[in-house]
Every structure is written in C-alpha cells, then in structure tokens.
Amino acid sequence: MPGVKDSEVVLKVEHLKKYFPMGKHAVLKAVDDVSFEMKRGETLGIVGESGCGKTTCGRTVIGLYDKTDGTVLYKGKDVHAMKGNERKAFTKEVQMIFQDPYASLDPRLKVNQIVGEGMRIHKMYSSNAEIQDRVFELLDQVGLNREHASRYVHEFSGGQRQRIGIARALALDPEFILCDEPISALDVSIQAQIINLLIRLQQERGLTYLFIAHDLSMVKHISDRVGVMYLGTMVEMTTSEELYTNPAHPYTKALLSAIPIPDPKVEHERQRIMLSGDVPSPINPAPGCRFKGRCPYASAKCSQETPVLHEIAPKHYVACHLY
Amino acid sequence: MEDKAIKINTSNVLPDDAFEDVVKEKQPAGTSYDRGLWYDICRSFKENKVALVCLIILIIIAIASLLAPLSPYDPDAIDATQKLLPPSKEHWFGTDDFGRDYFTRALYGGRVSLTVGLASMICTTIIGTLIGTFSGYKGGKLDMVLMRFTDIFLALPSFLLMVVLNTLFSPGMVTLIAVLSLFSWASVARITRAETMSLKQKDFVLAAKSMGASHTEIIFKHIIPNMSASIIVAGSLGVAGAILTESSLSFLGLGVQLPQSSWGSMLQLAQKYILDRPSMAVFPGLLILFTVLSFNIIGDVLRNALEPKMIK
Amino acid sequence: MEQLLKVENLRVSYHSYAGEVQSVRGVSFEVNKGETVAVVGESGCGKSVTSKAIMGLIQCPPGEIKEGSHIYFENQDLLSFQEKQWEKYRGAECSMIFQDALTSLNPTMNIGNQIIENITNHKNVTKLEAKKEAIRLLELVGIPEPAARIKQYPHELSGGMRQRVMIAIALACNPKLLIADEPTTALDVTIQAQIIDLIKQLQQKLGTSVILITHDLGVVADIAHRIVVMYSGKVVEQGSSEDIFYRPKHPYTWALLKAVPRLDLQNKQQLVSIEGMPPDLITPPVGCPFAERCPHTMKICQTTPPPTYHFEDGHEASCWLHHPQCRKENLPFVAGGGQECQE
After folding, report:
1. How confident is the model at residue C333 (pLDDT cuts 50, 70, 90)?
2. Which chains border C (3 or more CB–CB pairs < 8 Å)?
3. Is residue B212 less than 8 Å (CB to CB) from chain A?
4. Which one of A166, A187, C135, C187 is CB 3.0 to 4.6 Å from C42, fit for a cystine?
C-alpha cells in the first residue's frame, strides 16, 4: 500500500469507505476504498474537483462523520471507536481549518471567545487572565493585533477571518491539522499569506497537515506528498516533486495542464489537455475506472476492470491500466 | 506623446528627502466601526421615529401602571354620588358606574395586562425555545414525536380550550399566565426548530464539535445566541398576542375577577354604556391598541438592530 | 481601433451603517471594439462596483454615483439615461454574467424559456424563431444536445454547464459588450479552463468586446488584450497584456504577479505575499493607497497621492517610483523591462 515504512506513522487509513444512502436504490459513494498513511510532521495534499469526496474523506478521517467501512488509526487507535476521555484527548490533538472563513466563525462571538473556546472546553488554563494572555499570543502568531480580540468577526476580511480560524485551531496545541480548502475562498494575493503562515507554523511546531484543495499549484507547494482523488477514489499518489515532473494518470496530467500560468507567451503556446464534459455523478457509479468517460486513452479494459493503486516507480502509486 | 508626468515634474520640484525610505511597523488594527449593541439599538430607534414614539408610549404606560398607587383614588372605592362622570380635571378619564375613578382603574388594569403579557411571553419563549432547539438538534425519532406533539397544540382550537380551562380552575392571574403559555409555545417551538435545523449544519457548529464541545455547550453557546433575532421577534409578537388574548378572556368575564380590573374587563363594563359614554370604551381600547402596536413595532426594530452586520 | 466604452473619473460611494464607503474613487479606462479588457484586483477594490455602474445596476440609495463621473458608451453618456433607455441598453447593448450561475438563473424556469424570454424582450420575433435561436445559442456555447437540454432546469445542470447557459443568455441579443464578473471563481480548475477558452473563442467569433473581472492574474494571461489593475477603488496601472506581464510598473502588480505560486518553485519556500490588508475605504489614506503594504514606501507616498505616469502605448501607472527624483535601486522588473518613465 502507498505510504511509508517509518515507525512514526501518525495516521493510517485503510480501505476507508463512506457511502450516503440516497433513497431506496441509490448510494452516493463519496469515498470508496481510500488508503494512505501519514508520518509525523508531514504534509499530505489531497486534490480533486468539487464532488470528488475529498472533504468527506478528510472529515471522516478525523471522526466528524461516521465511516461506512474500513479503518482509521490515529497513533494506533481506531478513531471511530474512541469514547469518553480518549475521544476528548483526540479532539484536542486533532484540529481543523475550514474552507469558508465566513461560515466557520460564530457571528455572535467576539474573537477572544472564538479563539479561547477550545481552551475553555478542555480546561487548559485555570483563570480567564491566562486564557486572555494566550489569545493575545496566538493572535500575534497569526499576524493579527491585540485590539482585534474584542471585535466581532463581521468586521474582518476573508483573509483575516482565516487567520482567526487558524488561531482557533492552534489554541489547543494540536499535532495534526486538517486543512479543508483553507485558501480557496480567498483572493490570490491573500492565499500566499495564508500558505506562508501555515508553512511557518509547521516548521515552528512540527505539525502534521492533511491539506485538501482543488488548486494543484498551491497543494504542490505546501505538500510533501500529494494524492489525487477522482469520484471517491485515489487515482494517483506520490511526492509532490514527482507529481509535477512525472505525472502518470491522465487525470493528473489534465489537472496540471489546466493550471493557469501568468505569462501570456507561455499560455499562447502551450497545448492544454482539455477534459471534455464534467465530473459525473458519484451516485451509483458504473463499474470499471471512474475516469473512463472523460479519459482520452480509455479502452475496453477500463470499463470492465477497476484499476487498483499500484507502485510504478519508487513511492509513486497510480491506479490506471496504462501502467 | 503629451506627458502629464513631465508637467508635474517641472512645475514643482519636490524636496529630496521626500523620496527617503520609510521604516514601517506592523500594520495597525484599523478603525473598528462596531460601537456595541446599545449603540446599534439606540441608533435604530433614532432612525425610526415611529418606533421611538412607540417606545415612549410603552415606557409611559409602564411607569404609570407602576406608579398607580400614587393616585389619590382607591380603585375599588365605590361612591354612588360620583357615578358615570365625564372626563374632568378631578377624574381624567371620568368615573364608571360605581363611581370609581376610571383613570386609576385603567392604571391598575395596565398592571394586570402588562404582567400577564410579559410573564406569559417569558414562559412561552423559554418552553418553546427549549423544546424547538432540542427537537431540531437531536433530530430523528425524538424530533418526530416532539413535532407531532407541537402540531397537536397548533391544531387545537386554543381559544375555546382556554375558556374551558379558565372556568375549570380558579380564575386569576396565575391561571391566566399558565393557560396563555400552554397554548402559545408551539409556534415558538416551530420557529426555533427550523432555525436549529439550519444552524446545526453550519461550519461553526462543526468547528465546535471538532474541538470536543459537548451538545449542551453547542446549544447554549452557538445555536441559541444565533437565533436571538427570531426569538425576540417571536417574543414581542407573543407579548402583543398575550395582551390581546387576556383582554378577550377578561371581556368574556373569564380573566381576572372583580373587583380587580384589567383593560379587557373594563371594555366589558363599558359595553352597557357604549351609547351614552363611549369614552369608557375608548380609553381602555386605545390603551390596548397602543400597547399591542408598540410591542409589534419595537420587536421589528430590535430584530434589525440585533442582526450581525456586514461592514466591510 | 474604434472606441466602444469610456469610463471617465468614475466615483461611487455606498452609504453604509458605519459611514460613507468610497468604493470607487476616480476610475478611468477605455474599451475598444472587439477587445478583451481584464479588470484585476482583490475583493473590495471596486472592480465589481465599476462593472455594476456600467450596467446601471447601482441602487441609489445606498449607492451614489458622484458628480463628475462619466461613462460613455458609443459616445452617449450612460449616466444621463432614463430608466427606459437603460432597459433598452441592458441585455441588448451590454450584458453581464455573474460569478454564481446557480443564483443568477431562475430555478423555476427551464433554461430554454430563460433564453427565449431574453430574446423576445429585445427583439421582435415569434416564439418559434426565438426557440430556434435559443438552440443555436446553446450549441454555440458548447452544450451537447441543445434541443433536449432546453427543457432542463438549472439544478439539473453542473456548475460548468450553468455558466455556459449564463453565457448563452448574455449573448442572446448580440450585445456589443459582455461583462464577465468573476465567471470562473466558483468553478474547478479544469472547468475554469473550459470556460475561459469558450469566452475567448466566442469573442473571436462574434467580435464582442469583453470586460473580464477577476482577482487572479493567471486566469487572464491567455485571453486579455489589455489589463486594468485596480486597488482600493483606484486604477493603479493599466496597459496591454504584455506590458503588465513583462514590463509591470507598479509595486502592486509586481506583488500580484509573484503571489501566484509557479510550479517550478522550491517546495515550502516562502511565497512572495502582499502582507497586510487593503485600506479602509470609509477613511481612505491621504497618500498612495498601497503605501501601507508596499515594500518600497517612501515618505512622499504617505503624504501625497502619486500622479499618473504615462509610458509607451497607453501603458500608465500611478506610483512615485517613476518620479525622476526617485533614486531607488534594486527594483524588480523595471531593470529588465525596458526604459523607465519617459522624461
């Protein structure tokens, strides 16, 4: 299976499945047999178009959604079987940063209440003054001012709100952060700020990131390894360098070629791999490769046999019959 | 090419130190345009003159009712010589058929009407919000059972049952409040349940959950505060409704019992003299009208003021 | 090239709860016939407000178009239009597509009827002719089996398809100007590439002028002829696509160009970002609006707004760095990108 042999495995996901029943005969297979491992201090990026199940995958992994099948082991313990104190400790170690900085912060609370909420839940400090000091420290770390602590979130711009979201996640001294499209709702100029902040925090604190996004260029930049998802399945997984220099799966190639380059001459000359059509529905998918309908290399084999993830080069796994 | 830059350059040469570098500190926090809840509420009232008038009317009515004992007249003292006097300097609203000062009775009636209205509103919103939020948050079978129960209460001919209950139990203010609350929590429960259903899907609730917050914490810290606008509107409509229902019940003689007065029972009394002394009906009628109208309008203004605003 | 639209000193304010927000503060630019102009800037820089002003969609109040603003469309001042004239202009002369196609389409009407409605509103044709035209339009925007699709409702279509329908509706009356307000922001990268490609093809085929509003310079590299860079309600730089990408003159444009991570960058290297936030437009700064975040700020930047410097071929930038007295060294791009300002 794709992954690392290192003993410092933090997260181990095996054959994870998450289905949503849609009426009597339909099943939405949001995540269908996904496996991966993550080392401490590593960033694993997951990319894919909307509806590919990457968000569901992330939320199932940290136990926010129940699984349908498979196992998720965090430091050797089954995430979905945790109860009581074990579960509470897990919710302290594993944090989440959300996509929409407008919906993920409670509009009725002030910034210091939002950032301090987790500390109060886990009773990390005995006095309010200590919590207040810690909130100031966190705001400093994410590049906000102390004055911001007493304001409501509706006074902040998208980038600032995302910083508040990051401060909230950091408040509990987590080890693992699920970043669920943290930049896709932001302007390009602000995206770089947030990415820089996340990279700096990782270096300072040795955090492990599961980074979900649809923008391959940013994911490639922040991740050590990248997994590409298509309709609930992992189609390719490798190091980010390898993914960029040597993409194997036709879908990955198309994704790479769709990234706009801010250079008119290069843009005019380059040949895009244009994918025809849209992502098909994940409800009752047909057997065989999920990408066959849009794949320029699809053959008869693709509709009969479902390709499995296999290693084509060291640390490079692809699910495609071409290899 | 004609060049603006040249013109600017030649006409005024700038001092050289203007082009020196600036050492910058961290960007300041920027101005906050949030001036607090009270400012928002005051501002809404300032902008909406009708609401301001309503507020003043309500305050006057409330203070006057509170200060009713200061009136030189006893509301229950019967004086056959002073029967049915028209409004005058001594008796501002005139007197009734027992010679009691009508103004003083209206003040004491206001005490009853306002107390019944406010108390039943408080009971209604608390019961309704708790049931609605709990039902919406838990979902599933419990939600179904609670909502059918609510539907039953909404479907009952409430006024009729209120009449029945009021006759069964010893009439009085407590019975009135209990009966009114019993039949009006259902609509509040409906509203809060719908809001809870949508709020519990929000990312900030998910965020609290992922941080390990308990259900009680989520309900009381995140869900209920975010419904406050709808609860306040429901509450203000509730006060208005309760005052009206109380008046109707008292009008039918099922409200507070004599000699205690309420605006409704005063209207009932006035019935007999509607042709000779219409002012006896007009005064309590106007009081009910203004109070109910004011509560409705103020509820609307408060909702707008409490809505979190987008500033940037 | 013939001029189609000319925006002159446009100033728009919104009267908000907190005070007067000066969203657009003196914007001037032109659009020629058959040209694609990209308006680039962060959210809140006034780019959408500008496009709404061109469409006559600013509600007054809370909006207010200030005295002295002019928008000329084929030499007619739009701002003097009466409501009747606006109705004739919108849709027929100039039409707009929005970021969120799902909320811009009517969910209770099938897409065919939405297109037909737009055609019959502006043209004197029979229902049948309009239907034929609708099918032709859907085919034009690359929707397969248009005759069958015409009966579908917006929720039955995917995001990319909806955006295509929006474009078909916008093109229904052969407008001379198409305004696309962040048409691809809500879409995935592969679909984004399709839509940009479609707009480019249609533009070449129909000769429509296009104003493309976006926050991502990368998106417009392939399609824009000219680029207008906006910051906090002002145009800070404008010029041809080559000027902006290869010879940018304003520090904000430099930063925007560098903020896009290139795939050949070293992993986890710090990206060049524009630190800080755009200024507050209720009390805009007295000097250059970008001074607070600019890495090259000088004393004068904080006290006096910079004049506009003109370079060759209509390339202009508002920045004190181009003042002859400025002796700054080690500036990015300028050295490689031709001469400094004309003197």
Report:
1. low
2. A, B
3. yes
4. A187
Residues of A in contact with B311 (CB under 8 A): 154-155
- What pLDDT, on the 0 to 100 scale, is given for residue C329? 67
The yes-or-no verdict on residue C260 having pLDDT over 90 is no
Contact C188 A50 (CB under 8 A): yes
pTM value is: 0.84
What domains lie within chain B, and their CATH numbers? 39-71+90-310 (1.10.3720.10)
Minimal Cβ distance to C283: which of B5, B13, B31: B31
| Residue spans per domain, chain A | 9-318
Confidence of residue C339 (pLDDT cuts 50, 70, 90): very low
Q: What pLDDT, on the 0 to 100 scale, is given for residue B4? A: 42
Taking 50 as the threshold, does the pLDDT of residue C338 lie above it?
Answer: no
Beta-sheet strands, E only, within C67-191: 70-73, 76-77, 94-97, 177-181
Lowest-pLDDT choice from B11-15, C151-155, C255-259, C323-327:
B11-15
- The pLDDT assigned to B190 comes to 92
Token match 């209120």: residue?
B162
Tell me what ipTM this predicted complex has: 0.83
Tell if the CB–CB gap between C241 and A264 is shorter than 8 Å.
yes
CATH architecture observed for domain A9-318: 3-Layer(aba) Sandwich (3.40)
Return the residue of B nearest to A171 by Cα: B211
Q: Note whether B27 contacts C44, CB cutoff 8 Å.
A: no
Choose the closest CB to B33 out of A107, A155, A157: A155
pLDDT of A306 above 70 = yes
- B36 interface with A at CB cutoff 8 Å: no
* C215 vs A contacts (CB less than 8 Å): 187-189
Residue ranges of chain B with per-residue pLDDT less than 70: 1-13, 25-27, 35, 308-312
Residue B310 touches partner A, C-beta closer than 8 Å: yes
Report the residue from A157, A159, A192 with minimal CB separation from C271. A192
Percent of chain C with pLDDT over 90: 14
Residue in A191, A254, A268 nearest the CB of C190: A254
Return the residue of A nearest to C144 by Cα: A277
Angle at C223 between CA C219 and CA C227, to 5 degrees: 80
pLDDT tens, position by position, B275-306 = 888 888 888 889 989 999 999 888 888 877 77
Secondary structure of chain A in the HEC alphabet?
A: CCCCCCCCEEEEEEEEEEEEEECCCEEEEEEEEEEEEEECCCEEEEECCCCCCHHHHHHHHCCCCCCCEEEEEECCEEHHHCCHHHHHHHHHHEEEECCCCCCCCCCCCEHHHHHHHHHHHCCCCCCHHHHHHHHHHHHHHCCCCHHHHHCEHHHCCHHHHHHHHHHHHHCCCCCEEEEECCCCCCCHHHHHHHHHHHHHHHHHHCCEEEEEECCHHHHHHHCCEEEEEECCEEEEEEEHHHHHHCCCCHHHHHHHHHCCCCCHHHHHHCCCCCCCCCCCCCECCCCCCCCCCCCCCCCHHHHHCCCCCEEEECCEEECCCCC
